[in-house]
């Protein structure tokens, strides 16, 4: 086990750097039954960060031929840094991107012409975490304690929401900037809790022999919201709707396949993503398995009403700077 520990930590911390990034309306509702492009069409998809288990359905859609059935040749790219995802879509160098909804919302509020059109997961992934070894089993125990944060302002905002809902005065807690080293700091017990992605760091902690204790913001007063969303420029949305419709249909098939054939989907991922580890990817996928499908039973569901509730909450607690208009279009939800 010792020989694998550094690898788990590197993978978890890489995925955790998603945290460094940084009503609704749009087109009319669509039934998702449009025609695929008549000619093979190139599509560039840039991920939120390094490929992991959470992306298994994307690689399954490619390797199992679902994109090809829709006349799409999808080039799946990893950004060289977290900010690249947003930059490349804005620059027109990538057709579609995946990013935290807060970052897409902030850019939309600043006047950038982008919209979210599918949810990757239906729940927030950033959470406050501790371990059984530390002895924190409820946020109310954190009064007078220490919480590790990456340095991104939204970290403290999320922690404060959880603390206040648990009856803790946030001013009684010391926030310590630890970068993206939540796993190491929790194992060494340098902090009492830390902000991280439960989809990744909780997996790394388990593989280190620890028992993570996770406090998700939607369990402590925050509305449910999708942490990661697929987004595109409004130019793409308006001028290439058939491409996004086809992409959404194929992607839904990919995640349906991954949920029913997880081992093969993980094999598709590992075979096509440099550095992806099957054991870690499987554990991450299983951690979020229940949250790929929305309340209506479909992958990618995104609700204008729920996003409006999220935006209002996020602006009130400081996760986003202001509430953007027209952040979401639901026309491509399968």
List the main descriptive attributes of the protein structure presented here.
single chain; 334 residues; alpha/beta; D-Maltodextrin-Binding Protein, domain 2; 2 domains; 5-stranded mixed beta sheet; 10 strands; 39% helix; disordered N terminus
Give the helix/strand layout.
Layout: H1 2-16, E1 41-46, H2 56-63, H3 66-69, E2 72-77, H4 84-90, E3 96-100, H5 101-109, E4 114-119, E5 126-131, E6 146-149, H6 153-165, E7 174-177, H7 182-187, E8 193-197, H8 201-207, E9 212-215, E10 228-233, H9 234-239, H10 241-260, H11 262-272, H12 278-288, H13 304-317
Would you write up a description of this structure?
- The strands form 2 sheets. A 5-stranded mixed beta sheet has the order 2-1-3-10-4, with helices on both faces. Strands 7-6-8-5-9 form a 5-stranded mixed beta sheet.
- It is built from 13 helices and 10 strands.
- It has helices spanning 2-16, 56-63, 66-69, 84-90, 101-109, 153-165, 182-187, 201-207, 234-239, 241-260, 262-272, 278-288, 304-317; strands spanning 41-46, 72-77, 96-100, 114-119, 126-131, 146-149, 174-177, 193-197, 212-215, 228-233.
- It is α/β, with parallel strands linked by helices.
- It folds into 2 domains: 2-124 and 225-317, Periplasmic binding protein-like II (D-Maltodextrin-Binding Protein, domain 2, 3-Layer(aba) Sandwich); 126-219, Periplasmic binding protein-like II (D-Maltodextrin-Binding Protein, domain 2).
- The longest helix has 20 residues, at 241-260.
């Amino acid at each position: 086990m010792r020989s694998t520990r550094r690898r788990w930590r590197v993978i978890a911390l890489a995925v955790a750097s998603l945290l460094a990034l940084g009503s609704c309306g749009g087109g009319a509702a669509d039934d998702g039954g449009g025609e695929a492009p008549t000619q093979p069409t190139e599509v560039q998809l840039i991920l939120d960060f390094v490929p992991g288990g959470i992306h298994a359905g994307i690689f399954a859609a490619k390797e199992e031929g679902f994109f090809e059935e829709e006349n799409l040749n999808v080039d799946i790219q990893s950004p060289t840094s977290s900010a690249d995802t947003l930059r490349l879509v804005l620059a027109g160098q990538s057709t579609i991107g995946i990013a935290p909804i807060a970052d897409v919302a902030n850019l939309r509020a600043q006047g950038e012409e982008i919209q979210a059109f599918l949810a990757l997961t239906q729940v927030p992934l950033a959470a406050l975490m501790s371990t059984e070894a530390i002895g924190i089993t409820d946020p109310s125990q954190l009064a007078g304690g220490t919480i590790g944060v990456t340095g991104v302002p939204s970290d403290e905002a999320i922690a404060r929401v959880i603390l206040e809902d648990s009856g803790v005065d946030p001013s009684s807690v010391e926030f310590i900037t630890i970068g993206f080293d939540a796993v190491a700091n929790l194992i060494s017990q340098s902090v009492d809790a830390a902000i991280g992605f439960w989809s990744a760091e909780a997996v790394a902690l388990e593989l280190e022999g620890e028992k993570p204790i996770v406090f998700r913001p939607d369990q402590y007063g925050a509305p449910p919201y999708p942490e990661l969303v697929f987004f595109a420029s409004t130019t793409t949305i308006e001028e290439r709707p058939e491409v996004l419709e086809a992409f959404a249909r194929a992607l839904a098939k990919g995640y349906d396949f991954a949920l029913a054939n997880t081992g093969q989907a993980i094999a598709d991922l590992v075979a096509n993503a440099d550095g992806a580890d099957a054991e870690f990817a499987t554990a991450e996928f299983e951690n979020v398995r229940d949250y790929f499908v929305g309340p209506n039973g479909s992958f990618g569901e995104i609700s204008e009403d729920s996003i409006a509730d999220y935006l209002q909450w996020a602006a009130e607690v400081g996760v986003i700077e202001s509430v953007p208009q027209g952040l979401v279009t639901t026309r491509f939800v399968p």
